[in-house]
Amino acid sequence: MKKFYTFLVLLLCLINLGAIPDVYGQTPATLPYSQDFNTANDFTLLNGTQTNKWVYGAFTGNTGSSIYVSNDNGASNAYTNTTTSTVQAYRDFTIPAGSTIANFSFDWKSGGESTWDYVRVWVVPATFTPTVGTQIGAGAGRTQLAQLNLQSTWQTFSLVNLNVSAYAGSTMRLVFEWRNDDSAGIQPAVAIDNVNLSIPTCIMPSGMATSAVGATTATLSWTAPSPVPGNGYEYYLSTTNTAPTAATVGTANAGTTVTPTVTPATTYYWWVRSVCSGTDKSVWVAGPSFTTTQIPATVPYIQNFSTGNDLQLNNGTQPNKWFYGSAVGNPVNALYISNDNGVSNAYTISSSSVVQAYRDIIIPAGTTDAALAFDWKADGENSWDYLRVWLVPTSFVPTAGTQIAAGGGRIQVGGNFGQQTTWQNYLNTTLNLSSFAGQTMRLVFEWRNDGSGGTQPPVAIDNINLSIPTCKVPSALAVSAITTTSATISWTAPTPAPVGGYQYYLSTTNTPPIATTIPTGSSATTTAVLSPLTPNTTYYFWVRSVCVGSDRSFWVAGPSFTTPQIPTTIPYYQDFSTNNDLGFTSGTQVNKWFYGSAVGNPAKAIYISNDNGTTNAYTTGSSSVVHAYRDITVAAGTTNVTFSFDWKAAGESSWDYLRVWLVPVSFMPTAGTQITAGAGRIQVGANYNQQDTWQSYLNATLNISSFAGQTMRLVFEWRNDGGGGTQPPAAVDNIKIRICSTATPTVTVGTVTHNSAVLTWPQDNGGANYTIRYRPVGTTTWLTTNVAAAPFPTATNTTTLTNLQSATQYEVEIAAVCNGTTGTYSHNTFLTRCDPTPPNVTISNITTTSALITWAPLAASSHYFMRYRIVGSGNAGWSANIPLPAAPTNTYSLTGLNVYTTYEVQIANMCDNETTLNTWSNPKVFTTERTCEIAPPGLTITNLTPTTAVVVWDPFPGATYILRYRKVGIPSWTNVPSSTNTVTLTGLIELTQYEMQVVNVCNGTPGTYTQPYIFTTPTVVYCQMESTASTSEYISKVTVTPNGKPVMENQSLASNYTDYTGVTNKFIELIQGSSNNQITIEKKLSGNANAGVAVWIDFNRNGYFDINERVLVSGPNNSDQATGTFSVPTDAFVSMTDFKYVVMRVALQKDGIPVNCTSFPAGEVEDYTVRISKPIVPNPINQTDILIYPNPVRTVLNVKNISKRANYKIYNAAGQIVSSGIILNNKIDVHALINGVYVIDIEDSAGLTAQKKFIKE
Question: Which residues form the Fibronectin type-III domain (predicted)?
Answer without folding.
Answer: 204-295, 473-566, 743-836, 837-931, 935-1020
